[in-house]
Design goal:
alpha/beta; 9-stranded mixed beta sheet; 314 residues; 10 helices
C-alpha cells in the first residue's frame, strides 16, 4: 500500500527543476511513497528534462496535464496518484529529507483531520521574505469556520485521499495560470465546510526558492488580491458558508483600513465580480452589487477622513 504521494506540477521551467528533484532523491523513509512529476502542457523541453532527472528513481512517475492551470494539474494528478495521503508542493521548493515520515506522522497522530500544512522556509536569504510560513507552533483549523487566506499555502499542503474524494477534488478553474490564483486555500476551505478539520504542523518542512525580490512584491500582492476576491466570491455563493465569508471579508478589510489599502479592496471586488460572471451567478452578483458599492464608498470616505486627521495632527 502506498502511504503517501508527493505531487509537483510544473510548466515551462525545464532549466530550474534539478534542485527540486535532487531534494526529492534525498528523502529518507522506510514508508512506501511515490513522487508524481506533472508536466502542465509545457511548450519547452520540460518533459524531456523531467525524464532525464528522474532516471533511476523507481518511485518517480511523470504524467501530463493538458489543461493549463495549477488547479487543473493538481486535480488530475491526485486522481492518478496511489497514496492514501496526497502532499502538494511546488517546483521551486525543496522538501526536507524527513518530509514523508513527518507528514505521515501528523495524519497518524490526528485521525480526525482531513488535511494539514507545514512550515515554508526562505531558502535564499537574498530573496524577499514572502510566500513563506515560519510559524513554530502547531494550530488547529476547525470545521465550519471562515478560513483566512494564507492559513495554509500550496507549497506545503497535504490531504487524505478520502477528503479529496469527499469534496470532489481540486477546482480546475482556479490556480496559477488562470485568472483566479486561489486553488490551495479553496481546497482547504472545501474540506472545512465539508466537516473536515485540519491542522498546521511545523514538523512538515519545505524550503521555498522563489527568487522574488522587493521589486516583485507589488505585482505579487496584486495577484493575491485577485485570488482572494475569487476565493471569497466562491464561498459567498455557497449557502452554508455565505455569512461566515461575508463577515470574514468585511472584518479583514477593516483591519487593513489604517494602511489605506483601498486598491486591495478594488482588486478583490473586481475579481469577485469576474468569478461570479464566470460562474454565471447573475442573481448573486446583482444582489451584492449595491452592498459592494456601499462598502467601497464607506471605506474610501473613512480613509480620506483618517488621512485628513493625520495631516491636522502634523
Amino acid at each position: 500500500m502506498t502511504r503517501l504521494s508527493i505531487i509537483v506540477c510544473t510548466r515551462n521551467r525545464a532549466q530550474s527543476l534539478e534542485p527540486m528533484i535532487s531534494a526529492m532523491k534525498a528523502i529518507r523513509s522506510e514508508q512506501d511513497w511515490e513522487l508524481l512529476l506533472v508536466d502542465n502542457a509545457s511548450t519547452d523541453n520540460t518533459r524531456e528534462r523531467l525524464t532525464f532527472l528522474a532516471e533511476g528513481a523507481g518511485n518517480f512517475r511523470i504524467v501530463t496535464a493538458s489543461r493549463i492551470g495549477l488547479g487543473a494539474a493538481r486535480d488530475m494528478a491526485w486522481r492518478e496518484a496511489r497514496g492514501d495521503i496526497i502532499l502538494f508542493t511546488d517546483d521551486d521548493c525543496y522538501v526536507a529529507p524527513d518530509i514523508v515520515d513527518a507528514t505521515i506522522a501528523v495524519f497518524d497522530a490526528h485521525p480526525e483531520i482531513g488535511f494539514a500544512g507545514g512550515r515554508i522556509l526562505l531558502h535564499d536569504p537574498d530573496d524577499y521574505p514572502v510566500t513563506i510560513d515560519e510559524r513554530t507552533q502547531a494550530s488547529d483549523i476547525p470545521a465550519f469556520e471562515f478560513v483566512r487566506p494564507g492559513a495554509l499555502q500550496g507549497a506545503n499542503m497535504a490531504f487524505r485521499r478520502n477528503a479529496l474524494e469527499r469534496i470532489g477534488g481540486v477546482d480546475p478553474a482556479l490556480g496559477a495560470g488562470t485568472p483566479f490564483p486561489c486553488e490551495d486555500i479553496d481546497t482547504v476551505a472545501a474540506c472545512v465546510w465539508a466537516g473536515l478539520p485540519g491542522r498546521f504542523d511545523p514538523s512538515m518542512v519545505v524550503r521555498h526558492h522563489h527568487g522574488r525580490k522587493a521589486s516583485d512584491y507589488p505585482a505579487l500582492m496584486a495577484s493575491y488580491d485577485r485570488g482572494r476576491g475569487a476565493y471569497f466570491a466562491k464561498h459567498l455563493l455557497c449557502r452554508k458558508s455565505r455569512i461566515a465569508y461575508l463577515q470574514g471579508w468585511i472584518a479583514g478589510t477593516f483591519r487593513d483600513l489604517h494602511r489605506g489599502r483601498l486598491s486591495t479592496l478594488a482588486r478583490e471586488l473586481a475579481a469577485a465580480k469576474a468569478y461570479m460572471i464566470h460562474r454565471r451567478a447573475w442573481a448573486t452578483l446583482i444582489a451584492m452589487a449595491p452592498l459592494a458599492g456601499a462598502v467601497y464608498v464607506t471605506l474610501a470616505g473613512a480613509i480620506t477622513i483618517n488621512k485628513a486627521a493625520l495631516t491636522i495632527r502634523k
